[in-house]
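Input.
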Amino acid sequence: MQEYHVTVAGQSFDLPRPFFVLGTQNPIESEGTYPLPEAQLDRFMFKITVDYPSLEDEIRVATATTSRRSVELEPVLGEADILRIQDVIRDVIVAEPVAAYAVRLARATRPGDPSARPDIRRWLSWGAGPRACQSLLLGAKARALLDGRPSASFDDIRAVAKPVLRHRLVASFTAESEGVSTDAIIDSLIESSPETV
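Output.
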């Protein structure tokens, strides 16, 4: 089994497959921390925003974490299962028009692209690169597989667009001053991007 050699804070580790990296970001407590450069952010496939839980969920969290009751976790999948699923995802079909749609959506975020809309040139300083296209396709394939479908669809691309793109777009001062979020920009691009040209 292939291992990955990484160095973090001067310490070296060998990480066997499968593994994944989670990075957390707290919008309040950021003193003493530094934002990751865009090139590092681009290596994360998704940026998932987690809001406060519902009242019912928060009650369950509060009561479960303040009692003596313990929960024993049972593995659902083993290493071999995860590696097999990762391999099968590569076999999910993406029709050429769906792949082209994903690439056009990513390219539409680039303010320097000659075809960029005027509002994109005004709202974004930097757009998504080729790694975003790869993540859109892999995310869409995984969604299709989870839904029991052998091929990814336009809807799958749209469903993963925000988690894939939101951390790859750098909003301009104009967008920030106008209160335009990257999620709103992505929504606007999805609404105006035809599936085929």
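The chain is about 45% helix and 10% strand.
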